[in-house]
Amino acid sequence: MPQLNPNPWFLILLMSWTIFSLIVQPKLLSFTSTNPPSTKPETIPPTNPWAWPWT
Length: 55
Hints:
Blueprint: H1 6-29
Transmembrane segments: 6-24
Family: Belongs to the ATPase protein 8 family.
Keywords: ATP synthesis, CF(0), Hydrogen ion transport, Ion transport, Membrane, Mitochondrion, Transmembrane, Transmembrane helix, Transport
């Protein structure tokens, strides 16, 4: 069963994780968020009861 031979696939796995960890991940983490979190407290608008016409 050739698919159980880890020789070529393990090297591919290591190389892909190395590329991801060293090249791709720092580039993705360098982006800043376009909507930073706010320090203002969240206000909940007051709700009014609905005036049902049949009650």
